[in-house]
Amino acid sequence: MSAERLEPDSAAAAAELTRAAAAARRSLLPCGRHTRLRRHFPDAAPAAWLSLRRLDRIRSVDADDQTCVVEPGVSEHALNEAVAPHGLELGAAAPCAREGTLGGLFLAPDVSLLRAPWGPPRDQVLGASWLLSDGTPVRSGARVVKSVAGYDVTRLFLGSRGRLAACTELTLRLRPRPRAPRWYRVPPVQLRAWLHPDPRQRVPARLLFQVDGALWAQTDGVDVAGALHAGRVDAAEGLAAFERCRAAFGAAAQRAALPFSAAAALAGLAVAADLLAASFAADDAGAAAAALGLEAGLCRVVPQPAPSPWLERLQQACAPAAVPFGGGP
Amino acid sequence: MSALAAELRRIVGTAAVRDDPAGLLAYESDALTLFRCKPAAVVLPGTRDQLIEVVAALHRHDVPFTARGAGTGLSGGALVPEGGVILGLARLNRILEVRPEDACAVVEPGVVNAELSRAVERWGLRYAPDPASQNVCTVGGNLAENAGGPHCFRHGMTAQHVLSAEVLLADGSVETWGTTLAAEDDLDLRGFLVGSEGSVGVALRIGVRLIPLPECVVTLFGAYDSVQDACATVSDIVAAGLTPVALEVMDQKAVAAVEASLYRAGYPLEAGAVLLVEVEGPAQKTRDDADEIEAFLRRRRPLRVERAATPEQRLALWKGRKGAGGALGRLGPDSYVMDGVVPRSRLAQVMDYVDQVEAESGLPVANLFHAGDGNIHPHFSYDARDPQQARAVEEAGARILRRCLQLGGSLTGEHGIGLEKQAFLGEQFGAADIALMERLRRAFNPRDRLNPGKGLPLGRGCAESFHRHGGYRA
Q: Is the Cβ pair A67, B186 closer than 8 Å?
């Protein structure tokens, strides 16, 4: 990470730096605060980093429409602080909430502990502004919660880890905070009720995760203490466990997902896990899956070991005349 | 074409290739009758392998083709320019695998949306996207258009429910994009495919997410003096942090049409607008939420409030809304169902504008809309044989779409750009944005043989390939 680091403080300045690099046929790699790069690009060696961390303004919060426009250097934590007074939150809870950037969260495929209620992180992004590697600014998506106009370039770019485009602005959907959250510590013997194979029999959990060998759950407006003799805990204790789980996901080298039917088996493993998503954190996910007796094909590791064969073709399409982002030294 | 037709017949059998005028008639438009174009042939493969072989043959002959499900699309997406071939996928209608314990299924593209939900009901599961045409439209067509429906306010669009796809590319090669596990591909090609209007690839097999059937569902109904009061009530509910699964509004003209049809639901004719709200989830919480919603429904001087808790009562309340499309279709010889989006807080404003356009154009417009999403569907009734009316309806539609964009919205929430809205795409996106989309299209579809002329502004010379307003050629 000794390469030069460019740190523009506006989208216009980022465009200028990108154009200058393109003219010099110099390869840049967009980044935020380098919190996720270790996992995604262990060997990256661009001529220079294009860090977007100083693009850290919350442009607007539209509480009535439950949307906001932010620059990519804003952290998940900062955004949630800003929208909490409106009873809203980001529909994703990822590792690196304070130290990482939203650009990093959405551009590098990451886990979200709010996946069960709101889907993966990319489902929270409605539109975005980008720079192609020749410096051309483009926009994708829309500012409304529903739009199918044009190709879904947003989704394509979000998974590209910055190699198709550098993000300069994000329009996000916001979600209502749970109105009556209740936290539980779940004894392992009860796990079957929380993960019952018949969804009609399942305890309606909003969160169900494991950290430090213990299981925790949150419901919204549903009291299960009586029915299940589950140990109700106060919010502070539940939130502290939630933060520990996030941190454990952030610290592990890999994340992996299993079929939902295998989620209960994760409770036997010494890993942090989101049981509703059947995903877990591990330094060697393959070994963890093997310990569960799962075939390698049933465990999906993120980031994927082999880059997509489409990457080069799509880089060519994005900026036909320019050196692609992350194109090597 | 005759050499190709012979080859296609060899692959799929004689009966599964139609190139006679009568056989082609049903394929010359989709549910948007504004555009028509007769294909050179229709091929109806019965198996995945046949479909792959057909596309390879079309590729060799360099013939444009368009995949088509049930033809219920509302933006002209399922047409092919003259000389092209329609791939009718309705026969590929097998549910290949259901994994109830993993809450997912793998289906062929021709599986009918509602049939998938019926097939998985026994495991307590359902397929969430519910476009109005769900009893006939196909999962493959839903994928191509990123279809929505009333319940996508809470459950999301098709993009949130298609997990993976085995994709047949323009040159006949096959790849798998996405996974049914909770881990996204680095490069979300699956996400790019959904809503690409058939121009990126043809889905051979589709991995879909299934969601649990709710323990409890409550439907509430409110009738108001005005659309404004109904919209304000929607805003009250959402602002309180409640998350109903559906928030649907119909205006007075839509109510009148429904009440005069066999979909009569007993909605009050004197109401300026009616609002349907549905909540679902665990029993106690759902009842608590419904109590709160009912209080909001009563806040803005309703003419009537109802609450249905039994399936029969719920069905009765939904009957009018579900039948509205059919009821409105009978108001004139032709209809034009629009699709635009505004931020939810601008709904009342855009509806005022629709009223103004109606008054100035002299064309009757009825309105039903997904209020939670700010997704409007003005419904024009007109007579396409009258050139003046045909022109007026296009002008009126253009004004409404432009207004949606001025208010910070989008040209389409769930119907797609198709042939219908290409001319406006340049008003929502900049030239560089569209040029990028063009280049991406060519990356997947280099010779532009897969559904050419849809979704993006037409190239020079292509516009004449499609005939507007039933322009039958002699």
A: no
Q: State the Cα–Cα distance between residues B425 and B435, nearest whole angstrom.
A: 12
Q: Does any CB of chain B come closer than 8 Å to the CB of residue A165? A: no
Which residue of A lies nearest to B198 if distances are taken between CA atoms? A151
pLDDT digits (tens, 9 = 90+) for A254-307: 889 999 999 999 998 889 999 999 999 988 888 888 888 877 778 888 777 778
pLDDT digits (tens, 9 = 90+) for B298-329: 999 999 999 998 999 999 999 999 999 889 98
- Which CATH code, of 3.40.1170.60, 3.40.1000.70, 3.40.50.1970, 3.40.462.40, is assigned to B216-406? 3.40.462.40
What count of CB pairs under 8 Å joins A to B? Answer: 241
pLDDT in the model for residue B459: 58
Q: Answer yes or no: do B410 and A311 touch at CB < 8 A.
A: no
All structural domains of chain A: 4-177+310-318 (3.30.465.10), 181-291 (no CATH)
Structural contact between residues B338 and B418, judged by C-beta atoms closer than 8 angstroms = no
pLDDT tens per residue across span B64-81:
999 999 999 999 999 999
Which residue bears the tokens 């919209």? B231
Q: How many CB atoms lie within 10 A of CB B225?
A: 16
Return the structure tokens found at A37: 């790069």
Chain A contact set for B180 (CB, 8 A): 259
Task: Kindly state the tokens that stand for B68.
Answer: 């088509």
DSSP output for B380-427: EEE-TTSHHHHHHHHHHHHHHHHHHHHTT-BS-SSS--TTTSHHHHHH
